[in-house]
Amino acid sequence: MSENNLVISPRRGWVNIGIKELWRYREVIYFFVWRDIKVRYKQTLIGVLWALFQPLVAMLIFTVFFGRFARIPSADMPYPVFVYTGLVLWNYFSFVLTHASESMVSNSGIIQKIYFPRLAIPLSSCFIGMVDFAISFILLFGMMIYYRFLPSIEIIIYLPLLIGITMLASAGLGCFFAALNVKYRDVRYAVPFLIQMSLFLTPVIYPLSMLSEKYRWVLLLNPMSGVIETSRVLISGKGPIDWPALSISILVSILLFAWGVAYFRKTEDYFADII
Amino acid sequence: MHKAAIQIKGLSKKYNISHQRNYLALRDSLEGLLKNPFAFLKRKNKGLLEKEVFWALKDICLEIKKGEVVGIIGRNGAGKTTFLKIISRITCPTQGEVILRGRVGSLLEVGTGFHPELTGRENIYFNGSILGMRKKEIDKKFDQIVEFSGVEKFLDTPVKRFSSGMQVRLAFSVAAHLDPEILLVDEVLAVGDAQFQKKCLGKMKDVSQGGRTVLFVSHNMTAVRNLCKRTVLLESGRVAMDGPTELVTAAYLDQNLSLKGFVDEKEISGKLEGVVRRRNPTILLKKVTLLNSQGALCNAFRSDEPVVVSVLYECLEDIADLRVVVQVVDEDNNPVIISQNSDREEESELYLRKRGLYESFCLIPANLFGQRRFYISVHLLNLKIEHLILNKILSFDVNFQGYNLQHGEWAESILRPMLDWKTMLREARG
């Protein structure tokens, strides 16, 4: 076998993400994903249907209250399609964020006894969330057929980009909260609350155009704004992509990811001691 | 090319104790505030940085050659586990460095990462993977793992329906099939039934004879003696001794001899469990002591000497029916011996106790225990009124002293009484 030397010593200075090691341990990420997907709907009655049920009911309620009663404009789309598009992406984002934030604490037994790159745990959340996302996305296609919608062909190119941005942003924030949660269990209460509140700071139930130009940029700092707006343009097949908005999303999500991962790496040395 | 497999230079690890205290629930801090509202003022005067620093490891230097099997022993809290945790990269050292040459596999606890909802088969894969095996490797060794564990029939049953023994067996099997060049093992043999423990030790022996470097942490001196040529004794975070196993383990057991074999009132009050109190306390447990036949404090016995447990207690009022129970239990809290002062008729007259201080002695005869560590639990009952329980309050090691033990077995039974043997020649041939 190859002579691979490993030096363990207190870490100083700037942090690197440890991509190389993470790649060597990619199977561990795979198995974390695999385990959580397997376990997710065990001993439930309707199983994976939950992934459809939740956004569906949310869509119905939002359609009645915001679409019918409040008559929120929906950018040339039927309101159900409009809100569901936003919900599918938003749900993915919030799932990854919640799951990642809890992930270190819920795997504390493993962390105290076995070594592997710790990042594998929060990062695996992005892939676990893909299952629910894919299932609820199927329903979106169903709705498009029902409403006789033809999405723009560009969706094939841009959808991975949108998912990528969502992944980076949610994983970055997730890593940050996961690390914070090790030390302060307040995170467990703060994150769901934060997600609930920020649903309203994201153009899920309303279009960005509802806001006056003056304040729109504030909302655009939220990376999900650009993502959700772009997804609607693609699905309706009408109108150009708002590139400035999307660029801000890309930039913010990359920054969030870099910051979250760096914070995680910086603090991970003491995880096993205080978790 | 005779480079050491593990090279450790000036390794130290510091813990901040006050830091961890902060993590106690809010309730505790409120309680503290009510009891002593001005404590924080005092502390401020002394300066805020009154942190309790605890060095779990201090300046450890070791070199372990390729293929060496080294035992790590020491009392609880000596730093053995911290040491392995640093080498296996679970936690980070405060100072110093470790150089590892070769793939490292560590087994700090059997069955971590088992998910109760997954089936046996699925858990083999998941656990194998986080322990550092590739999927291909697991595929290849799958049948061996299953066979070793002996749970073939339940492979597709969720692990939560396994008995705890089955879980342990499966977990050890997965870990035992790791194939690292450097193996770190912590006290994994303390689990499972005797037969499986024997199997595990056998497997460990195979591994250690296969030219691999092994660090083996254990309290089980017999296991250490059997597996390791060299042993390191840790004492409050430092290397106290490093040398041939026979010498180091003997020194360790001797050193234990001089250790205290008692717990006093202060310590007892912290460990008292399951107290049922109907009104004001009627009995006080003052002290539990382990003595040898000469009446000296002791916590390491030869198997050919008796063990005496003394319980000192105070009756705060006249008590109609007082019972003292002494239990000897093993590591997993299985009772080995239970004895009550009322078992014998003579003592029964003394059920009625006037107020006063009493000391009860329980003599456990010689030539009874096997070679291992035992624990003492004590119950003190004012029948139907008060019940004081001290679980595993003291421990003692027994060193088996049979005749002609050169080829001694390593898997000892719990009890190893001297039974009567007689052999006679029935018929001479030739």
Provide a short characterization of the protein structure:
With 275 residues, chain A is mostly helical.
Describe this entry's structure for a reader.
The complex is a heterodimer of chains A (about 280) and B (about 425). With about 280 residues, chain A is mainly α. Chain A has one domain (about 20-275). Chain A is built from twelve helices and one strand; from the N terminus they run E-H-H-H-H-H-H-H-H-H-H-H-H. Chain A is globular, with a radius of gyration of 20 Å. With about 425 residues, chain B is of the alpha/beta class. Chain B folds into two domains: about 5-35 and about 50-255, Rossmann fold, CATH 3.40.50.300; about 260-400, Coagulation Factor XIII, Chain A, domain 1 (Distorted Sandwich). In chain B, the strands form four sheets. Chain B has a six-stranded mixed β-sheet with strand order 5-6-7-3-8-9, with helices on both faces. In chain B, strands 11, 13, 15, 16, 18 and 19 form a six-stranded mixed β-sheet that branches. A four-stranded antiparallel β-sheet of chain B has the order 10-12-14-17. The termini of chain B are far apart. Mean pLDDT of chain B is about 80; it is low at about 20-25 and about 45-50.
